[in-house]
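Reference record
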Amino acid sequence: MSEIKFDEMKGKGVLSQDGREFGSVDGLVIDHAAWHVTALVVKLERELLEQFGMKKPMFGTTTIELNVDLVSGIGDKVILHKSLADLTDIYRDKGKSVDEG
């Protein structure tokens, strides 16, 4: 079993299937009853907020939750198996979190 510590994950870039880096890992969502990571909290690049249907805050950016089922691999970056267009469509349909579509 391969393990990754949170401090190794925090700040890792997140790439869509089509190669677009659209954010970085900012946190994890953990099901404390099952001791299982259910989602990655991803800090979005500011220029993509409108594409995700969000308003730009005065300072900083905002985050979304990506279901761990969307992750196809982790190395120097976290790679997803959905394109950026697919992710924005899913997000707009589902609201605050991006789940398997």
About this structure: The mean pLDDT is 86. The first strand starts at residue 13 and ends at 15. The radius of gyration is 13 Å.
